[in-house]
Write a structure and sequence with these properties.
The complex is a heterodimer. By secondary structure, chain A is of the alpha+beta class. Chain A is built from four helices and ten strands; from the N terminus they run H-H-E-E-E-E-E-E-E-E-E-E-H-H. Chain A folds into three domains: about 30 residues; about 80 residues, F0F1 ATP synthase delta/epsilon subunit, N-terminal (ATP Synthase, domain 1, Sandwich), CATH 2.60.15.10; about 45 residues. Helices cover about 40% and strands about 35% of the residues of chain A. Chain A is elongated. The N and C termini of chain A lie far apart (about 60 Å). The N terminus of chain A is likely disordered. Chain B contains eleven helices and six strands. Chain B has a five-stranded mixed sheet, sandwiched between helices. In chain B, helix 7 links the parallel strand 1 and strand 2. The two termini of chain B are about 50 Å apart. The chains are: A alpha+beta, B alpha/beta. The interface between A and B is medium-sized, with 28 and 29 residues. Strand 5 of chain A pairs parallel with strand 6 of chain B, so a sheet runs across the interface.
């Protein structure tokens, strides 16, 4: 009887029973995985994805979130978000935003996010020197603050690319 | 051209209850009256007197109705194409706006109704262009209802989009504090939303109510109000956030302010996107109705035209025959 079940299982299209298996795995591991939403205003980078860990640049320093993390609200500063998924690491650069860690899920809402490998080293260098000179030449406090933010973001990008 | 414009309004407003400024309704003229008359089939006396001229009038009327139906059809197709674009845009923004929802539910929504009497800010999200069915007048009606019923609160109105101004300026012009137009000219984006939010933060308020059209599906848009407590209220009830730890290098008041501004921008962004989608959907169905009305009108006019033509021919035949018999 067992043999017949196995045979009938094998006779089905592989995609069917493979799909079933992966669903079962997800249920079993649900509590050990982190439900992650990672989005910008224009697109979603992760939508209810089940990941192992996520690391993001909170204002107080890099912050790693594992499942069952304490509920937290974190302000993001320019830096690298790392999503660890099935042993793979995906790195994104975010400019700013907020991260919300609740019991059920974690949401990272970034104003801008790009893949780290999409950043152009030379453009970053150029932007950095432009912003630095803008800080020096700024006449009013507002434009100086804007240039200062530019310097911060660019130097964060630079250090992200160097690591 | 003026006649076309008039007919256009007639066609468009037939399907839906659109409120037009009174001056436009007054422009009923001879040829509009003629149309009303033809629909009632009580025109014989008029047409008998000026036989050929009336045929000509019907003919030109038919031509203008036909061209209107072409215009509305094109507008419908443009709206359909735009709807697809804006809907895709909204869909891809959804995770961003939805990401905040569970957090808001446990914090900001708890504060609803607490100390929110006082200075109330109404943000009216309406479209910049008309001819989009009832979306704008529905928002305006809802706001009027709120302003009419409640006498205790002090209200101020922020207008996002041009059409809200048309609907509210007669009664509540003195309440306008900020008017922002051309909000939907470029596709809704977050940077622009932040600029609008900044503009709103310059006002003093105890609570904000955003009125917009929620896009349910292509044929149904629901006027929704979103209440957000003011920053002072949020700071006063900071204990609501006790379940959360805060990770920030600034003091908690500054962090809360930042968080408040961020969530406000996100919620406004959501409302603007919903309204932009609703506008296109409503325009699509309004223009579809208009096209249908125009073709219906065209058929009626064709019937009238043919009847007139036949009676003219019959009249001429009678004249010829009786003339021949008299010889």
């Amino acid at each position: 009887m067992w043999r017949t079940t196995i045979v009938s299982l094998l006779r089905r299209k592989p995609s069917q029973w493979l799909l079933k298996r992966s669903f079962a795995d997800q249920v079993a591991q649900g509590s050990e995985k982190l439900k992650l939403g990672f989005a910008t205003p224009t697109h979603a980078l992760r939508k209810d994805a089940l990941v192992d860990m996520v690391v993001f640049p909170a204002a107080t320093g890099m912050m790693g979130v594992l499942p069952q993390h304490v509920p937290t609200v974190a302000q993001l500063k320019p830096g690298v978000v790392t999503v660890v998924e099935d042993g793979k690491e995906d790195k994104y650069f975010v400019s700013s935003g907020f991260a919300f860690v609740t019991k059920e899920r974690t949401d990272i809402l970034a104003v801008e996010a790009v893949r780290l490998e999409d950043l152009d080293k030379e453009a970053v260098q150029r932007g950095l020197s432009e912003c630095e000179s803008a800080v020096n030449s700024a006449s009013d406090p507002v434009s100086q603050a804007v240039a200062q933010i530019g310097v911060e973001v660019h130097s964060a990008m630079k250090s992200a690319l160097e690591n | 051209m003026a006649a076309i414009h008039r007919n256009f309004l007639n066609v468009v407003s037939k399907g839906r209850n659109i409120v037009y400024p009174r001056s436009m309704n007054r422009c009923r003229t001879a040829d509009q009256a003629l149309l009303v008359a033809t629909e009632n089939n009580s025109v014989s006396s008029r047409f008998d007197q000026v036989r050929y001229a009336s045929l000509k009038a019907v003919r030109s009327r038919m031509r203008s109705v036909a061209s209107i139906s072409k215009i509305t059809k094109a507008m419908k197709m443009v709206a359909a194409a735009k709807l697809r674009g804006v809907q895709a845009r909204q869909e891809s923004s959804k995770p961003f706006t939805a990401g905040l929802k569970s957090f808001l539910q446990s914090t900001f929504h708890e504060m609803e109704g607490k100390d929110t009497s006082g200075n109330n800010l109404i943000v009216a999200v309406t479209s910049d262009r008309g001819l989009c069915g009832g979306v704008n007048s529905n928002v305006v009606r809802e706001i009027r209802k709120v302003l009419h019923e409640d006498k205790n609160n002090q209200y101020a109105i922020v207008l996002c989009g041009d059409k809200g101004r048309d609907g509210l300026q007669r009664l509540y012009r003195n309440l306008f504090v900020v008017t922002i137009k051309d909000v939907f000219r470029a596709p809704v984006n977050f940077a622009q939303t932040c600029v609008i939010a900044e503009e709103i933060f310059k006002q003093k308020f105890d609570s904000v109510t955003i009125f917009y059209n929620h896009f349910k599906n292509a044929i149904s848009q629901i006027v929704t109000r979103k209440v957000i407590p003011g920053l002072d209220i949020v700071l006063k009830h900071a204990e609501t956030f006790d379940t959360y730890e805060f990770e920030s290098d600034m003091d908690s008041a500054q962090t809360l302010t930042d968080l408040y501004e961020f969530q406000f921008a996100v919620q406004l962004f959501d409302a603007l996107l919903e309204n932009a989608t609703s506008e296109q959907a409503a325009r699509m169905s309004a223009m579809d109705n208009a096209t249908r009305n125009a073709s219906e009108m065209y058929q009626k006019l064709t019937l009238t035209y043919n009847r007139q033509r036949q009676s003219v021919i019959t009249g001429e035949l009678i004249e010829i025959i009786s003339g021949a018999e008299a010889l």
